# Entry
Amino acid sequence: MRAPAAALDRVLTAVDDAAPEIVDFTSALVRIPTVNPPGEAYADCARLIGERLAAGGFDVEYHAAEGRPEHTTSHPRINVVGLRRGRHLRPNVHLNGHFDVVPAGAGWTLDPFGGLVKDGRIYGRGSCDMKAGIAAAVYAAEAIRRAGIALDGSVEISGTVDEESGGYAGVAWLAERRRLSADRNDYVIIPEPLNVDRICIGHRGVYWFEVTTHGRIGHGSMPFLGVSAIEHMGVVLERVRGELIPALAARTTKIPVVPDGARHATLNINGISGGQEVDGIQTPCVADLCRAVFDRRFLLEEGFDATKSEIEELLERAAAATPSLRYSLRDLMIVPPVRTPEDSPVIGALERGISRVLGRPATHVASPGTYDHKHVDRIGGIPHCVAYGPGILDLAHQPNEWCGVDDLVNATKVLALAILELTGTT
Ligand SMILES: [Zn+2]
# Structure
């Protein structure tokens, strides 16, 4: 059965009527300090989401990430999944949000876990990334129920852990157990804060690697009798700066990655350590070991193999020009880029929702960094996945993070309309 236009208006009105509740729920989620690392208060947050879903007619399950080393008695990894059946189980729309947040960090002028609501904004760590998104998902489904509309398919909402640290005990864990997979889910929307009129269709690839240079220890008063691993790392870094980084900056992807700087391939040096501990007691020694960790973000057009070969060749050139330079290269993390199919129904449904609610066309973007989309696509086998949610991307992980109430309400409406369309109800 198709919902008439009047039914859509009832849903949008139900969202407006629920606005104070949506704000309160977001604020309540922010007040639970689900800081990762180490993964605080996950069980409390899962329960708050689960209780709200149960009150809205969802069958709720809690999934502890048994078998994962980070799932411990002091910091249990608890995920929550709720399913609300309509007339049929399929099509199923799954809305997934991570409820872990990064540490507050310095520079706040208000309580990062106070959940303050002021002048049309909800403040706090995780307000934007992405507890407002979870609230939008929950109330999108709730508004449909309050409007008295039965879905033709079903809707599922999950709150998951550890996205900020890779999602292995969260979305990846659910997908590995086929709890979030093509066996049960047709469409996945992740309400990450990408700005309320933008649909995120994927992300760049990630290659984290470690380079170690090996030297030979010697007396610091006679450095010529040793081989300095730190100086050799300097040789590597000079080539990274002089050759690699300019080459990467000259490559541009066709995928609409935002911000503009991330349209190019990039490389960051995450950390470096060599010789003695700088804060420790010093003895006169030539450094025999130096390690650096690099974060290379690669483009869909580059691919992983070429990305890694380029690093290997740079290291070989550095070693060839510096006879005593010995090095090793170790892969730390590899995430291939993902991209939603251009004709995916999930994109079309959100585009129509955005233009109806906001009165302007949607923009397609891709994320500079990786997020749980990769697990949905690669492990869950669901290609029809995008990120769309309230909040301004640039505010994520910042001090005084906030989400606008207007954005939150509008995103809730867009999600509600998308659920109706994707379940075949409209
Ligand atoms: Zn996030």
In short: The two ends are 8 Å apart (CA to CA). The mean pLDDT is 96. The pocket of zinc ion is lined by residues 98, 129-130, 163, 192 (CB under 6 Å).
